[in-house]
Amino acid sequence: MLLPFLCGCSEKEEPIGGPVIGRTYLIARYVEGDMKLDYIPRTAATDGKSNTLYIDWADTEEYYNPDMEKYNLGRQEFWTPENKAKYLEIAKRNGDEIGAYEGGTPPGLYFGDQIALADNFTSMHITSDADWDEEHPAGKPLDDLFRVSVRSWKQRDEYGAPLLCRERMDRIGPEHLQMIPFNPKNPWNGRKNLRPIEIEPLAEPASEQHHRLTLTMTTTDGRTKSTSIDYPPKTGL
Question: Total structural domains in the chain?
Answer without folding.
Answer: 1
